[in-house]
Inverse folding.
């Protein structure tokens, strides 16, 4: 029992000392636990401006030590995926339009696998308009046969391959391909290829090795690689055309097909076009809309074949 003021003062002093000892003991225990943790320090080399930006992000997400921003806590939260990183969302419409153009060019070039990869990447962006996103999703939902991807890979690697094909009469054919490219025409895609086999070819002798095969008629699971050297191109034949009148004035050079385009000095308003032909059938499909404003000058076998077709057409309308 405390009976005097001096005893009371001694008692209070002992309580304060005991309290401080308890507090210090707790601090030492915490320090011991912290020092016992296994961890590694990371040194960041940042400009003052980047450091300020990180501190601002840390404050925004309440990553602090006391009332100060704590970059270490921010990095720890990212590492533990408490905060997830995402790409910026500031792409301008011009960039989206450019990527969409690139996707369509890849499709036109027969690079469907690359086009799908680009479409998936674009779908991750929030800047797409609803119609753009819907078009990309429809494109990605289209079924692609495994052999189609395999054919694209063989072409990319310049690897000769063999395929089985069914013609319009459902007759099976086998072709050994030493050069190929996928070409879109109208609503279908075709494989333009140089094949070892020339049986049943109805083209000019110079182009007998070239084939145009509809992709949807290539038999499933019937594509395999073969030995041999990949050719640089299809067989080609240069054809000279003369264009007249309004067609000559409005004509635009066909990139990748026209070798030369020149006005003739001795024939006014006549444009001379030298074009590479790989298929007589598709060549005629190109020039028929030109009508009488287009004349095939040579080589003679091509001119004669066109003349025979024109005569047959006239006779059809005379009967």
């Amino acid at each position: 029992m405390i009976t005097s003021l001096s005893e009371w003062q001694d008692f209070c002093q002992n309580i304060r000392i005991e309290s401080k000892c308890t507090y210090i003991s707790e601090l030492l225990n915490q320090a011991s636990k912290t020092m016992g943790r296994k961890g590694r320090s990371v040194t960041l080399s940042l400009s003052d401006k980047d450091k300020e930006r990180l501190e601002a992000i840390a404050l925004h997400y309440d990553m602090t030590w006391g009332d100060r921003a704590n970059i270490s806590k921010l990095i720890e939260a990212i590492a533990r995926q408490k905060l997830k990183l995402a790409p910026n969302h500031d792409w301008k419409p011009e960039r989206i339009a450019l990527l969409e153009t690139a996707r369509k060019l890849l499709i036109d070039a027969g690079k469907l696998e690359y086009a799908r990869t680009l479409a998936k990447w674009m779908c991750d962006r929030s800047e797409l308009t609803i119609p753009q996103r819907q078009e990309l999703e429809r494109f990605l939902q289209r079924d692609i046969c495994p052999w189609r991807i395999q054919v694209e890979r063989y072409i990319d690697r310049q690897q000769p391959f063999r395929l089985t094909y069914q013609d319009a009469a459902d007759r099976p054919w086998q072709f050994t391909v030493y050069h190929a490219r996928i070409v879109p025409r109208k609503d279908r895609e075709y494989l333009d290829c140089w094949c070892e086999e020339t049986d049943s070819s109805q083209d000019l002798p110079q182009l007998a090795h070239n084939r145009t095969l509809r992709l949807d008629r290539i038999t499933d699971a019937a594509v395999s690689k073969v030995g041999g050297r990949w050719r640089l191109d299809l067989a080609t034949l240069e054809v000279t055309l003369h264009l007249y009148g309004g067609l000559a004035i409005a004509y635009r050079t066909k990139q990748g097909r026209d070798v030369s385009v020149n006005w003739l000095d001795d024939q006014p308003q006549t444009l001379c076009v030298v074009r590479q032909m790989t298929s007589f059938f598709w060549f005629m499909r190109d020039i028929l809309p030109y009508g009488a404003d287009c004349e095939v000058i040579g080589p003679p076998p091509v001119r004669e074949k066109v003349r025979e077709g024109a005569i047959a057409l006239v006779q059809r309308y005379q009967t």
Q: What stands out?
A: The CA atoms of residues 152 and 167 lie 21 Å apart.
